[in-house]
Structures are given as structure tokens and as C-alpha cells.
Amino acid sequence: MNVNQNKAKFTKMACVLKAIAHPTRLAIIQLLEQKEYLFVNEICEILSCEQSNVSHHLTNMKSSGILQSHKKGLNIYYSLKVHEVSKVIGLL
Which domains does the chain possess? Predict the structure, then answer.
């Protein structure tokens, strides 16, 4: 394996691992693995977290390509975009 050829792949993998390296983010991923999608307020209620805190984590994971979001009425709901992240977490 040529490390130089895989540098972009390693960089993306490191970015994903960094994006999930927080207890709240791990909990959000677990919730989204159990349900197809959740609204921000539902996640806040389940995790007993402030909306601003949850939104920060969701934005971080979305920008890393782990989550995707869609607007439904006035609400934004989130779902997993990369289900393999759950498999990685399951190995830990």
C-alpha cells in the first residue's frame, strides 16, 4: 500500500473520526441508527441537552459528511448519511 496515494483517504477518515469523538455526538449517532430521522427538538428532549449544544454537534457532523438534513415544514430533521460510522462505533 502506498501511503502517498491514500493520503486523501486517510485525511477523510481522520476527519470522520474527529467528528464523532464526543459523547454527545456518539449518542446522537446511536439515536439516528435506531430511528430513520429525528427533529432537533426530539434529540434535545431524549438527551436532555440544550438546543444550541445539540445544533452545534449536528452542524459539525453534517459538515463532516456523517449526517444529512432536510426541512419539513418549520422543522429540520437529521438522518445518518454514513451508516458505516455506527459499525465503527460498534467495534469500540
Answer: 7-91 (1.10.10.10)
